[in-house]
Write a sequence for this structure.
């Protein structure tokens, strides 16, 4: 039995020495939707998709160590170029041998381009033809970030997957604004594609277009014409209703090649993840599991549980019954609630461990459902458990 | 070789089933001082002394989990009765089966009596014959804590070692005040000795007397007449100069029985620990290693290193070269400094791991020196490394 599993696993996970980074093998495709399971090779190992990437904004998934991430079977992290550019900066990361060595993580890392943060966090922003001038949100220092600078910083970071520098269109936006913005994103994408890369580094282009179907379809097609290792869907989760988000996914995916990975940026609602997978998406990232842990909220199969609430102060059950994470194996809701109530950091750490475990477990079940050809059942069940409703057809 | 070590270890560490809690075996005594190495049996296992107890004020050693404490070879923790009484309170701890089960720690725990915190933290304090009325420093709620209440709470906590409820004399204090205070501490000690205990729970009496030798000598003698499982030296580290502290230790120890453990409360300076060991002390606790971690300061063999300082921002060495803790095995000063600089909790956690490791390692070396009959060399070397001076004779 054991040998059988090992043999199958060996066949599924190719040797990193032999398989060039960027190789993406489809392992299963759902008959009733566009969902698929795959295996993406990176310079730091292979990733089973669909995959959820925990966010390590400032060189750490908040409160967690690399050994925790391995124990939680995290496959790939997201790092934020904007934050790491401001602190500690390119020089220190370079001195320390890149982001992997700096943070002690030997698995794959995807870095965003910094575009989203420049538009959402930075102050006194001025958009130029070749990038954005802005003031640091930390100390007001004047900075400039464009396709050239972003790719250079991502080269220093040495991420396995770099993202193109784009403009994130707010919701709502006028068609004129969206159209001009997409044109700029495409010019920047061309520039990004021309920049030097770290060894084995993949680059993903980002489809923008806001709520406008024709813009998204055109943007995707033009990115494919440039040619990237993978494609992301950006400009979502910016306040638009869920149907607009999902239509944005559908519009973006139309012209994307079947054999390249697709990444939906910043979406972490589990039902939305399942719906995006059904529309052909392979990769996700979101701060939800870590941020909710800091707010004292636990993700469980039955939905969110506000562990910090007084209702749990005498509750001797684990955060989630039946869960085999370190938090649930060892501690009660009463204890975790106490830690959160008195401001002990350990409470946040334990809930972070649980929430990341919940996400990893959910994605593993999703991948298993795809491999076993029961994705539609998984999708229906996810809706029933998490939304008490039927999936949209 | 391996077998030899195991055989010796088996002979040294008795089976908890067979050895009753409170048994204290002296394993080595220094010829040139009063220092000794021993083995104290508790209901949750044996403790090799001299021992340092990390402080777990609110049911956790800040940022650390039980598995971390085991990995760091922490033998025994200190819990604070005052803090746990206010939050989460006796009822919740009781519902959760005591402090060990509440916090998931299966090793020994010593709880203080709450006396020190009532005098240092609580507001609107009014000292009564049978205890202290005070307002909680959290929400101002009116509370009462005396020998009866403290022992009851420590019984609920189920600590392996409970401390008597005492009055901590400030420094300086008039002889009249100190004399009356010691009389009260002794009356309270009698009451504490009469209270019911948790199964296997030991009770230590606390020697007070401030800076007055005669008071300390008398207090110790009277406590011994009452009879406790061990004796603590309290009312130190309250602002007095080091010579006064060490004389207080000497005065307190005079009448303490050789065959009972002695605990110096709240002292965590490593040279002071060595000097107290030389004066016959076996147990220590202090917030220093954890608090300094939160302030960005690392303990090393060469003294303290302010890792948070800008000087370390490009330093690719570990926090302490040659250290084999998780932090030093995996991360650079530049990384830990970055985490502290951007406010990432992980920085505090990594430094806490390192600092506790440093303390555990120091105490292990101290015990080894005692066993090998080279304590005077260890003492001299500790002074040279940590104070650049000679020990006081």
């Amino acid at each position: 039995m054991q040998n059988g599993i090992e043999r199958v696993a060996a066949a599924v996970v190719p040797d990193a020495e032999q398989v060039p980074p960027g190789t993406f093998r489809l392992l299963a495709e759902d008959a009733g939707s566009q969902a698929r399971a795959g295996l993406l090779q990176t310079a730091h190992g292979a990733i089973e998709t669909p995959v959820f990437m925990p966010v390590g904004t400032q060189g750490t998934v908040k409160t967690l160590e690399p050994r925790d991430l391995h124990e939680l079977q995290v496959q790939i992290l997201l790092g934020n170029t904007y934050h790491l550019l401001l602190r500690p900066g390119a020089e220190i990361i370079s001195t320390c041998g890149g982001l992997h060595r700096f943070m002690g993580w030997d698995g794959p890392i995807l870095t965003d381009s910094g575009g989203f943060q420049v538009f959402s966090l930075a102050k006194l922003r001025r958009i130029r033809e070749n990038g954005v001038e802005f003031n640091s949100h930390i100390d007001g220092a004047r900075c400039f970030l464009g396709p050239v600078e972003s790719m250079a910083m991502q080269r220093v970071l040495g991420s396995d997957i770099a993202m193109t520098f784009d403009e994130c269109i707010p919701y709502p936006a006028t068609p004129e604004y969206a159209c001009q913005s997409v044109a700029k994103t495409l010019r920047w994408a061309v520039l990004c594609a021309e920049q030097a890369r770290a060894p084995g580094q993949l680059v993903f282009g980002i489809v923008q277009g806001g709520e406008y179907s024709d813009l998204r379809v055109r943007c995707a097609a033009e990115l494919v014409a440039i040619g990237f290792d993978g494609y992301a869907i950006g400009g979502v989760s910016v306040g638009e209703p869920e149907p607009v988000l999902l239509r944005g996914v559908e519009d973006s995916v139309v012209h994307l090649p079947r054999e390249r990975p697709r990444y939906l940026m910043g979406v972490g609602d589990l039902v939305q993840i399942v719906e995006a997978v059904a529309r052909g998406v392979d990769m996700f990232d979101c701060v939800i599991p870590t941020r909710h842990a800091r707010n004292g909220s636990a993700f469980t199969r039955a939905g969110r549980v506000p562990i910090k609430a007084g209702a749990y102060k005498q509750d001797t059950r684990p955060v989630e019954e039946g869960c085999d994470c370190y938090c649930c194996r060892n501690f009660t809701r009463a204890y975790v609630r106490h830690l959160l109530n008195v401001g002990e950091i350990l409470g946040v750490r334990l809930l972070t461990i649980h929430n990341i475990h919940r996400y990893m477990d959910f994605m593993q079940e999703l991948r298993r459902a795809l491999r076993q050809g029961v994705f539609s059942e998984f999708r229906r069940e996810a809706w029933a458990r998490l939304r008490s409703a039927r999936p949209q057809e």
